[in-house]
Amino acid sequence: MARTPLVSERIGQFFMGEDRLEYTEFGSGDRWVVLIHGQLMVRRMCQPLARALAAEGNHVITLDLLGHGRSDRPDDPMVYSIPAFGEQVLALLDHLGVDTAIVGGVSLGANVALEVADAAPERVQGLLVEMPVLDNAVEAAVGAYGPMMLAARHLPLSVRAVRAVTRPVPRGLVPFWAGIGLDICDQRPGSMAAILHGIVFGRLAPPSSRRRALDVPTMVVGHRSDPIHPAADAAMLAAEVPGAQFVQARSILEWRLTPERLDGLAADFVARCWQTRSGSAANRA
């Protein structure tokens, strides 16, 4: 088993209006990377990659989006959407005084990263996205998340029961990814229904015409045998974004259980993004 890199870690928070959002910093320096979790997940799922990238000299931030993890969880569906999550990432950069960063994420986080690049391309040094949810995934996503939304709205006791059973389990006593699974079960019916409503009935991602206009270095990771995150969506995005790098994962579990290959590719991509910026700055001088 690979040894976990030892890097400094600090927890911080900021506010958007009355809403509090929490994040973790890994490492230090001015090579910034922001990593965003998946839907109904928590920032801790990004911890292994964050530590690996920080060990390579990067300053990595993981964020709990509104309604997730240790950030506030309002019950109003109007506050949840992919564009709104993108605004939260930009507010995080403002809070930290960061001009540009590499923005990455998995599933929901991948779509949020695309929104950030679409809304403020001058602030995105690169995109590192795994399992984007685009045109080929719409039917499967609605089929999976629609019943969850209805259960949270009309059968709230079911959500509370799952939370009551899983919340007391000490995360330190179970394997890391089992703990992430327990974290996913730690939902509140009102905010869960609101999140799913806001996402299912909102803009899923920038349209294809906007994705084709993106002018940032991009690495897209996809894998087979996952209907909600079909490889066709990842391959399509890689074909749309000029010069994007497409990486085929062996399975959805590779980056979870045997991450060395993909961690190395991600670290190389991040290094190239910052080298490109340094080279451009030198040329301007």
TrEMBL record:
GO molecular function: catalytic activity
Residue ranges that the Swiss-Prot or TrEMBL entry lists as coiled coil: none
Segment forming the signal sequence: none
Domain AB hydrolase-1 intervals: 32-132
Pfam families xrefs: Abhydrolase_1
Name of this protein: Pimeloyl-ACP methyl ester carboxylesterase
Natural source organism: Nocardioides daedukensis
